Amino acid sequence: MTKKVLMVVTNHEKINEETPTGIWLSEFGEAYNEFKQHGYEVTVASPSGGQSPVDPNSVSEDEPQEILDTKIHLEDTLPIASVSAEDFDAIFLPGGHGTMFDFPKNEKLQELLRSFFESDKVIGAVCHGPSAFAEAKLSNGEPLVKGKRLNAFTDTEEADTTLDKHMPFLLESRLRELGAVFTSSANWSEHVEVDGKLITGQNPQSTVAVSKEFVKQLQH
Asked: Staple partner for 211: which of 25, 34, 108, 179, CB 3.0–4.6 Å?
């Protein structure tokens, strides 16, 4: 049976009037290509459906063509309200600062995460993608991340971007407040955490490693 992966991406396109944002392209493209190489069926959804904006800062002059080519899959995403956890084997959440604004507010995304987790399905997230965990709760009301070993974009990395003062919250701090066992490496270095079927990566540099671990868990 072909494995089916749901990728959820942001619709949010501005941090403020001067600062565009969106998805960090490599975090989507590297993961998407890894999943397709393994023959997985990939569905891309977003809180509102339609276009997922690409953060212009995430596209460099020497961006590999294979990553640029994945932008087409961000042009007309499914609304998340139209998907069911029962139809998928796993969920993957790429980051970008846009996720900080719309992932935590989306109740359907919280429902999906609860369903995936309680059905013992694979959940992957990288960089700001774990912002979706900020409001995710299990059926017993406990935070999904409580007692889980994970990582995400760190507070010091956020300070490096100078966007920390514009964020609705600091991701590392919020996850720690929720009881997560947060581990990290030096800023901008590859770091992956695996706790059962929950796989998280710290930053864009971690996407390939997170994707490979995600695939490994799916093959179990």
From this structure: 34
Q: How far apart are CA 32 and CA 191, in angstroms?
A: 19
Helix axes 207-218, 25-37, angle to 10 degrees: 30
- pLDDT tens, position by position, 27-84: 999 999 999 999 999 999 999 999 999 999 999 999 999 999 999 999 999 999 999 9
**How far is it, in rounded angstroms, from Cα 89 to Cα 174?**
28
d(CA 106, CA 111): 9
- What predicted TM-score, i.e. pTM, was given to this entire model? 0.98
The residue among 10, 218, 27 whose CA lies nearest residue 122 is 218
Phi, psi at 48, each rounded to 5°: -105, -10
Beta strands in the chain (DSSP E): 4-8, 14-16, 19-20, 41-46, 78-79, 90-93, 122-126, 149-150, 181-182, 192-195, 198-201
User: Which of 158, 139, 168, 137 shows the shortest CA–CA distance to 202?
Assistant: 158
The per-type count for the chain, helices as H runs and strands as E runs, is: 7, 11
- Cα angle vertex 141, ends 135, 142, to 5°? 75
| pLDDT for residue 220 | 82
How far apart CA 187 and CA 183 sit, in angstroms, is: 12
- Rounded CA-CA distance 135/175 in Å is 10
